[in-house]
Amino acid sequence: MERVPDVPETFTPDRPAWVSTPPQPADPAQAVNDYDSFAEGYSAETESNIINAHLARPAIMALAGDVAGRRILDAGCGSGPLSAALRDRGAVVTGIDSSAGMLALARQRLGADADLHVVDVRDPLPFADGAFDDVVASLVLHYLEDWGPTLGEMRRVLRPGGRLIASVQHPFVDHLIQDPPRPSYFSTTSYTDEWTFDGQPFPMTFWRRPLHAMTDAFTAAGFRIAVLSEPQADPAARELFPDDFDEFKNKLSFLCFVVEVPRSAAGSGDQPTTPGERAPSLAREPGFWAAGSMVAGVAGRATRSEA
């Protein structure tokens, strides 16, 4: 009997209109990710589409829960849709992004007095230890080759008991969208998409890593994993996207995490671990949840904080 392949040899996901070519192996010479060049076009495209406005953002907001009075750092805030939603719920929001063009749009949205800063999440954060109750990083970490320094800084600026709420491209989606022969799922590899706005192409480079590399990075930085989820589209989107919703709702797209800073430094696993040192099993973490391993389909892709 002929063996059925584990994954399809060819795979064509639903992709946003601005993603104009299949992913290719990354070209370091093109790794610019210059959001300043297309800030307005990107912000307009992601303002109300199904994948950003009705999946990625609602997923983060659902995990955040009641944020009234909480000090929240929106890391990679883009043009500020998530910052605005958090502020509307009563949070005190600070936004950072490496793109001055995106922050200009965020200031238009949030007002001249908004607390916004041009900061690259790869760099040390200009905030005091324990300055925030929560950090949100919506579709940001998959731009980074090394999560370690960034997660270390995010942990530093969180108070004991604080949360990092993050979403990334689902690693299995990013594995499937690459043409055969694909790199090993278990490797951390980079790839390049070509995005097109106003007829002009822009190469965008991302880093894909397996799930275990993500969880290892969180625990190595001293976080405890509280929630792991694979969100589905907001049911309210059915009325807005009647032709697409039923198919879209059953497809993987993102992976979301809530990870916490321990309230006490005492006890095993509360301190950052050295590279290669195993942290406590996921199954022992409170509130851990993961969907089954059977995959019915894969959704399109969105990126960065506009989610």
From TrEMBL:
Pfam families cross-referenced by the UniProt entry: Methyltransf_11 (PF08241)
Assigned keywords, A-Z: Methyltransferase, S-adenosyl-L-methionine, Transferase
Domain Methyltransferase type: start-end pairs: 73-165
SUPFAM superfamilies: S-adenosyl-L-methionine-dependent methyltransferases
Keyword Methyltransferase (UniProt): yes
Domain of life the protein comes from: Bacteria
Protein name listed in UniProt: Methyltransferase domain-containing protein
